[in-house]
Amino acid sequence: MVVLANPSPDEIFLLKPSKPCPSFPDTPAVDLSTPAAARDIVSASTEFGFFKVTNHGVSKSLISKLEAAAVEFFALPDVEKEKAVLANSFGYGNREIGRNGDVGWLEYLLLEVADNSPMLLPFLKEPLHSSFWYICYLHHYVLAMKKLATGVLELMADGLGMERRNVFGKYINEEKSDSFFRLNHYPGFGEHTDPQIISVMRSTNSDGLEISLRDGNWVSIPPDRDSFFVNVGDSLQVLTNGRFRSVRHRVVTTGVRSRLSMIYFGGPPPCARISPADELLAEDQGRSRYTEFTWADYKAAAFNSRLADNRLRHFENH
Ligand code: GA4
């Protein structure tokens, strides 16, 4: 892959890997309404750190309303979108990813979710009447994502035979939980893992999402508008003492059709201590594969790193 310091949109075509990666028709699909869901989620999280869920119970009309609002937002003139730029890579962003020189071929809206409410500033502008509805959709959508993520985390706990179903889900349900919501409009976003516990993503019917398998090979995930895609994040890899795998992923579209995705990142409260769950640690004879960290420390380290870095490496015990 050719890497350019500060590519123009045309040059970003060069960032595409030279060989197209094979499609992955066997993307693990978990039907949340079946009794096998817990087992299927555990096996997909172990092998891939990635799966899609059907029968998720999220209202189709809510999804399409928010998607339409997002399309409308990205269609605004740049000068309007730029009014939504906030400090520290929040709000509206274009091409710059994070704070350390990473670039992607995308524009985005990145919102912090505090006390169940996504940060609203970018939407609080004229015309206020339409902003009002966007805010409502956004609020309900984020709540639906949190509920879905919590359900999936509970099934993970069931599947791992944990006594408490909320052992993982509790982290994203505390008042101070540090979660994000992101709208991406792109052809491209470089490879990375998500630092949080879990990410729940939905995208328009366009290809481009690729994941890295255990053997290091990349595969392309066929789009599916009716499913949500779930990523295991770095923090969940630690909570499971390495049983689950934080999935390395990227977006590389052909550029023919624009891709819009909506992603919820469920993160713990800043002061939460992230270390393997006691029961799993006991199964592993008390040997933790990771040095404990607080989410505040890990997040600070992540935001000081480059997108493609292996952030967990610094916390691995040998
Ligand atoms: C990846 C997951 C989320 O999109 C994100 C990203 C964040 C950003 O875009 O500002 C980061 C990236 C993400 C990981 C490393 C750091 C931080 C860009 C970057 C170079 C919002 C997040 O939490 O971490």
TrEMBL record:
Cofactor names: L-ascorbate
UniProt protein name: Gibberellin 2-beta-dioxygenase
Pfam families in the cross-refs: 2OG-FeII_Oxy (PF03171), DIOX_N (PF14226)
Keywords, comma-separated and alphabetical: Iron, Metal-binding, Oxidoreductase
InterPro entries, per database record: DIOX_N, IPNS-like_FE2OG_OXY, IPNS-like_sf, Iron_ascorbate_oxido_reductase, Oxoglu/Fe-dep_dioxygenase_dom
Gene: GA2OX1
Domain annotation Fe2OG dioxygenase: ranges: 176-268
Family: Belongs to the iron/ascorbate-dependent oxidoreductase family.
Organism expressing this protein natively: Platanthera guangdongensis
